[in-house]
Write a structure and sequence with these properties.
single chain; alpha/beta; Rossmann fold; 2 domains; 8 helices; about 25% helix; globular; binds S-adenosylmethionine
Length: about 325
């Protein structure tokens, strides 16, 4: 039986040699995101990115934690003149359009050293931070302790949480009121964001994720797993995605806005197709209906519309 802090087991299970994200199935093999798995969703996300890149005068787009390059492929299909670069933990996917460059990354909170000096660049990290491993803590009635896990996902309480992570909880997490409350310590994520930001000389940094703000923290934690399209108990053995919601307000962004409000602001809602189109041009009618359906899914309350966009201008 090998007991490890969740943070270590999580890192190994997603980014070790046999880690989940290094496997051929990629993220799309386990779950859908706005970028992939929802018909028309990737195109809509790409429209949002293009619009923000225009507004900020960005000449390049880096998709950090790009999966298998789905969002960048949509951007390429829009005929963008911008340089497109994907970063993820695998080699460049063979079927990417030739115009997309690719950088291989170590994974988790660690960034590739070659990613540096980005100027006039929009960097988007879409659903990266929720899979950056962090310490899982549980309050024992007196103090926060690290939660340890074995390969089967069985947990036990370990030693007292170290001072740096305890200090993060004191700043960013409401004080616990009862034994058994849990916290996901966002310190590693904040540091990873600071590192990504330091690689940019100018442009716009966008972090998109499901998450929470100080008064809305999940007092019993949000750590969970996904395998083959289903939500499962998290198992740190390379078979299951391991993810936890992100403390969005500790990332130091200039602005936080939910996806639903941002898409409305960017005027992305496709018009309702005229009913006469159904007989004059049925394929166009169906296409427009599909675009509206994608917009509905990506802006839904209680769903993808609640995703946070953390935006920071760098100049
Ligand atoms: C939840 S998936 C999201 C993929 C894609 N952005 C999307 O929204 O469909 C998380 C991705 O983050 C990648 N990832 C995690 N840490 C990374 C790192 N340090 N550098 C690059 N990619 C990373 C994983 O390999 C995985 O492809």
């Amino acid at each position: 039986m090998c007991w490890r802090p969740w943070s270590e087991a999580w890192q190994d299970s997603l980014y070790g040699d046999a880690g989940l994200y290094r496997q051929p199935a990629g993220p799309a093999g386990h779950f859908a995101t706005s970028a992939q798995g929802i018909p028309g969703g990737g195109a809509l996300l790409a429209a949002a990115v293009d619009s923000l890149a225009d507004a900020h005068g960005c000449r390049a787009v880096v998709d950090f934690a790009a999966g298998r390059g789905e969002l960048l492929t949509e951007l390429a299909h829009r005929g963008t003149a911008r340089t497109l670069i994907g970063v993820d933990v695998v080699d460049r996917p063979a079927d990417l359009p030739a115009s997309i460059d690719w950088l291989r990354s170590p994974g988790g909170a660690t960034l590739p050293s070659a990613l540096a000096g980005l100027s006039k660049t929009l960097v988007i990290a879409h659903e990266w931070l929720d899979v950056v491993p962090c310490e899982i803590a549980e309050f024992d009635g007196v103090r926060w302790r690290r939660v340890e896990v074995d390969d089967n996902g069985t947990e036990r309480l370990g030693n007292a949480l170290d001072p740096a992570n305890t200090e993060w909880l004191q700043r960013h997490w409401p004080a616990p009121s009862a034994a058994g409350e849990r916290a996901e310590v966002g310190r590693t994520r904040d540091l990873a964001v600071a590192d990504l930001r330091s690689r940019m000389a100018s442009g716009l940094l966008i972090l998109v994720d499901y998450g929470h703000l100080h008064d809305d923290r999940p007092r019993h934690g949000s750590l969970t797993g996904f395998r083959d399209g289903r939500q499962q108990a998290p198992r740190p053995d390379g078979s299951t995605d391991v993810t936890a919601h992100v403390a969005m307000d500790s990332l130091g962004a200039d602005r936080l806005v939910c996806q639903r409000d941002l898409f409305a602001e960017l005027d992305l809602e496709p018009p309702r197709p005229a009913i006469t189109l159904a007989s004059s041009d049925p394929p166009a009618y169906l296409r427009q209906l599909a675009q509206r359906s994608a917009y509905g899914q990506l802006t839904a309350r209680g769903g993808l519309g609640d995703f946070w966009w953390a935006l920071t201008t760098i100049s």
